[in-house]
Design brief:
This protein is α/β, with parallel strands linked by helices. Helix content is 56%, strand content 14%. The protein is built from 33 helices and 23 strands. The strands form six sheets. Strands 10-14-15-13-12-11 form a six-stranded mixed sheet. Strands 2-4-5-7-6 form a five-stranded mixed sheet, covered by helices on one side. A hairpin with a 3-residue loop joins strand 6 and strand 7. Helix 1 runs antiparallel to helix 5 and helix 21 runs antiparallel to helix 25. The longest helix is centred in the middle third of the chain and has 61 residues. The N and C termini lie far apart (84 Å).
Length: 964
């Protein structure tokens, strides 16, 4: 017991040392030192436990020690988070209590709870946990009794947690399930359920083989076992009933209703797992289908005659392993392998010849981010190489000019030398020398000048050769950069392909939705899906999933008629729905069509007038009337059901398509059916964009939204009042100025010249877009602008240009929708220029962070002001000296001169002392606020600052400045 007390003191000392460390360290050196101390303490704990013979504690300490070592170099902040949460010393303190108070059994569950806390990067294995708990009680009880006690305790806890989980929601897993086990369940079970549902549908139609029936039963058994392990009792009970029925003779009873029950059970099984993942309750049909399966099981059991069970030949075989000759075992194939191979072939389960690796989506996203940074870096290198090549050309031109000047100088020197060497000139020069005392050395100066000119000419020739070599090297670098661009483009495409999933992955759910809707509406419909092998980006396909389900329900509920109505109209009783996926260029085209009753424009118009959506005298085309069903709250149903009538559905589809930067078109013919066409981009991450200038700003427009780049001569312009039109493909297209759509100041276009216009089509019509300048297209990576995304309508993100500048990526289709819906109004250039002139104030942004400067500049520019930037206080003072500034936005902590020092310098500057200064910093303590107030700061904001707060501060202090 003395050793136990001594070791308890070691545990208490280690816990004390760990708890006394500072978990809120901010400096990298302090963080690294704290992490190293923690690792050293765990090393000491492991060695002490080994010395005192505490194997379980030593094993646990070594496991945590190895875990900390893996984070020490890569992410030491994670170690401090564990320290701050108390996980690193909490279990040690409890372990000391367990050794000092062996009669108190409550410490063991608390130790287990501490080590199973979700804050740990990974939980300990059951062996480590069990050995630790046994080790802490081994000195007071017999090991066997301790182990039995702990196992009983764990089983009791598991049973209690399972009962509580089922009581709260039967469609959930155990709270204490191992994360890796749950992850494996969530990865493997969907495929097993999908295959089981497919086979059960074949069985329900009588179109199956005995092996397929056995395989479906085995899959149900596998899902039942896996669901029972993780504690999903509802799925385990459901698959247990299915397995029992599939093992009976069901073929004679399929046409009597059992087939319909099995088909409904297959759909319910898939719905169960969907609800499990989405944390939804049990489906409404769950209990009724369980009762139906119980009833069918009783009927089938009564109908099956009781026969004497035939002995299984496998039971008569010896249980000892079979010893095979060497020539069989060395062939690499055993009886088990052969049997397994035959079973696999008979199961008719498709296998892929390629080897697949499961990679988390976060890893793929990091790869995409790195590939995006590589694209930006390569573009910057390419542009720098182009600048260097242009500089080399300028250097060559400069050398050529110097060469011409040297030639003129050489000709002048040669001419003077020839004149000096002529007899008459020499005689006259000799006469002058005797008369004026001209020294002979001065005559030799001509020869020295001539020699110097020759040396200079040789140097320029050498310089020309060096310039030629430099240009050759730059060309080689440019070629290598182009090669790198090609490789990084292939790399980006390859990484993007890792995000692609086939349309086939959602086919079963789409088919199930049609079947369920048909059962609820007493209708009959078949769906055919074309293009199932098309690979689509994960985000795009997930974004289309919900809209597709809405449209399929509407196609059955609103479009397909009842079997009696279809037969009366001369149609087949079963409706036909076709869903087609196609890829055209960088666009995914989705077409959903049905042969139902179609949309009634008059009924839609009357319901829209009734709901006040349009006026009775409104003149709308048929396409405009059909698009009224996309409005929120619109429905043609008088009664509300669980499928339709609430006015929620097609507006959700429209919103989802807009979020995917897509287009939606509706066409319908009474009595013949309805067709909905959706067009979305191939991906939303990386794309090719056209860089254009609108006013004084560069913006990027994705190329997939531009139909054509068209040059129009001045004689092709047409005018109707103030509106500007062109003729294109037998259509009259209105020309819109992009700067006006964005509300930016820009001069009016010169209509005496020809212009290149962008042809862009919205859902309703096509437009010609005028921009002030068109630059070359380039590959960009779209970066999210959250939380500033809501500042400007029609901005889907931002991209980093080759020169490091940030350009917004426009969603032109959304801007055109806002224009067509009346949410956006155009202003004339003159009025816009006048308004902007009155509000165009110069704002100086001082921050050493490039991203903060760019984001604040973007916000300031969107507010209608001119943004200027400086990296620190010294550069800001230079800017104030050279330019007239109306307001200063400054950070607190900056190199060379911080915000407080800059503010003090401005306040003692006679001409600038009244300049408004707003400090934006991450320091939010009262101490820093008082320091800023004493220095002369007018307003103090903490990061991150939102748009409205910044706009109010700018308006307040700019008005104060104008009043002064």
């Amino acid at each position: 017991m003395d050793d136990v007390s001594a070791f308890a003191e070691v545990l208490e000392d280690v816990a004390l040392q760990l708890s006394s460390l500072n978990p809120l360290a901010e400096e990298p050196e302090e963080i690294a030192a704290t992490a190293a101390t923690i690792v050293a303490e765990y090393q000491r704990l492991s060695e002490a436990a080994h010395q005192y013979g505490m194997a379980g504690v030593s094993q646990t300490a070594e496991w945590i020690h190895d875990l900390l070592l893996s984070y020490k170099e890569m992410l030491p902040e994670a170690i401090l988070e564990l320290l701050q949460g108390g996980q690193l010393f909490g279990w040690i303190e409890l372990g000391a209590f367990a050794l000092r108070e062996p009669e108190d059994h409550s410490h063991l569950p608390a130790i287990a709870a501490e080590l199973m806390n979700e804050a740990w990067p990974e939980p300990p294995t059951p062996d480590i946990l069990e050995n630790l708990l046994v080790n802490l009680r081994v000195n007071t009880l017999q090991p066997a009794l301790v182990e039995e006690e702990i196992i009983a305790m764990v089983e009791s806890i598991d049973s209690t947690s399972q009962n509580n989980a089922v009581a709260q929601n039967p469609l959930t897993w155990d709270a204490d399930i191992h994360p890796e086990l749950l992850e494996a369940y969530l990865q493997e079970t969907p495929g097993q359920i999908a295959e089981a549902a497919r086979l059960i549908h074949l069985i329900s139609q009588g179109d199956n083989t005995p092996e397929q029936k056995r395989h479906a039963a085995r899959l149900a058994h596998t899902v039942k076992g896996a669901s029972g392990v993780v504690g999903v009792k509802a799925i385990a009970a459901f698959t247990h009933r299915l397995e029992d029925i599939l093992e009976l003779d069901i073929n004679p009873h399929l046409s009597n209703g059992l087939g319909a029950t099995l088909a409904a059970c297959a759909d319910c099984l898939e719905t169960l797992f969907d609800h499990l993942q989405e944390h939804k309750p049990l489906p409404d049909e769950y209990h009724s289908l369980l009762a139906e399966m119980d009833a069918w099981e009783l009927r089938l059991a009564e109908a099956t005659p009781t026969e004497a069970a035939e002995p299984d030949i496998s039971e008569l075989l010896p249980v000892t392993p079979l010893i095979l000759p060497d020539f069989i075992t060395q062939s690499g194939l055993t009886i088990d392998d052969e049997t397994s191979t035959n079973n696999t072939l008979n199961a008719e389960v498709p296998r892929s010849s390629a080897t697949h690796l499961s990679v988390p989506l976060e890893t793929v996203q990091r790869l995409l981010n790195l590939a995006g940074e590589l694209i930006t870096s390569t573009s910057q290198i390419a542009e720098q190489a182009q600048h260097t090549l242009a500089f080399g050309k300028q250097l060559q031109q400069q050398d050529e000019r110097i060469r011409q000047m040297l030639e003129e100088l050489s000709e002048t020197i040669d001419q003077q030398s020839s004149n000096l060497n002529s007899p008459s000139t020499y005689q006259s020069f000799a006469t002058l020398s005797q008369a004026d005392g001209f020294d002979q050395l001065e005559l030799e100066a001509y020869n020295d000048l001539h020699s110097t000119s020759n040396l200079l000419t040789e140097s320029i020739a050498d310089n020309r050769e060096l310039t030629r070599n430099l240009q050759q090297q730059i060309r080689q670098i440019s070629e290598q950069v182009y090669q790198q661009q090609r490789l990084q483009r292939q790399l980006s495409e390859t990484i993007l392909r890792t995000r692609l999933i086939p349309v086939q992955s959602i086919v079963t759910r789409l088919e199930r939705t049609v079947r369920e809707t048909c059962r609820r509406t007493d209708k009959q419909a078949n769906i055919s899906i074309i293009g199932q092998n098309l690979q689509v980006d994960t985000d795009i396909l997930q974004g289309l999933n919900a809209p597709l389900l809405h449209m399929l329900r509407n196609a059955v509920d609103h479009g397909i008629e009842t079997p009696e109505a279809r037969q009366a109209a001369g149609k087949s009783p079963e409706g036909q729905i076709e869903l087609r996926f196609e890829q055209k260029g960088n666009q995914i085209h989705l077409t959903l069509s049905d042969d139902g009753q179609g949309l009634n424009p008059e009924q839609i118009r009357a319901r829209a007038i009734e709901r006040g959506m349009i006026k009775p005298d409104s003149k709308l085309s048929e396409s405009d009337i059909l698009r009224l069903i996309l409005q929120p709250g619109f429905t043609t149903r008088d009664q509300v059901s669980d499928i339709s009538g609430r006015g929620v559905g097609m507006d959700v589809v429209q919103t989802a398509v807009e979020d995917l930067q897509g287009l939606l078109h509706i066409s319908s013919e009474m009595g013949q059916g309805t067709t909905i066409h959706i067009q979305v981009p191939l991906t939303l991450i990386a794309t090719n964009a056209l860089l254009v200038r609108a006013g004084n700003h560069l913006v990027a427009i994705p190329s997939n939204t531009i139909q054509q780049l068209l040059y129009v001569a001045p004689d092709q312009y047409q005018f109707e009042g103030e509106n500007w039109f062109i003729q294109h493909q037998e259509q009259s297209l209105e020309v819109l100025q992009l700067s006006q759509l964005l509300g930016w100041q820009a001069p009016a276009p010169d209509l005496r010249k020809g212009h290149s216009l962008l042809i862009i089509a919205s859902e309703q019509k096509s437009y010609a877009l005028y921009v002030d300048e068109i630059q070359q297209p380039r590959d960009i990576v779209v970066k999210s602008l959250a939380p500033w995304l809501n500042l400007a309508q029609g901005v889907s993100g931002a991209c980093i240009l080759a020169n490091g500048a940030v350009a917004p990526v426009l969603d032109v289709l959304r801007i055109l929708r806002h224009l067509e819906n009346g949410q956006l109004t155009l202003k004339s250039n003159q009025a816009l220029s006048t308004d902007k002139t009155a509000q165009r104030a110069r704002i100086l942004i001082v921050d050493d962070s490039l991203s903060n400067r760019k984001s604040l500049s973007l916000m300031v520019e969107q507010m209608g002001h001119q943004a200027m930037t400086a990296v620190d206080g010294l550069e800001a003072l230079q800017q104030l000296h050279e330019h007239a500034i109306e307001l200063v936005l400054t950070d607190l902590e900056m190199p060379r001169m911080n915000g407080l020092e800059m503010t003090q310098a401005i306040r003692i500057w006679p001409e600038k002392r009244h300049l408004p200064i707003v400090m934006i910093t991450s320091r939010g303590t009262q101490k820093h606020r008082n320091m800023a107030q004493q220095a002369g700061v007018d307003a103090y904001l903490t990061k991150p600052v939102d748009h409205d707060t910044l706009n109010k501060q700018l308006q307040r202090w700019l008005q104060t400045q104008l009043a002064a």
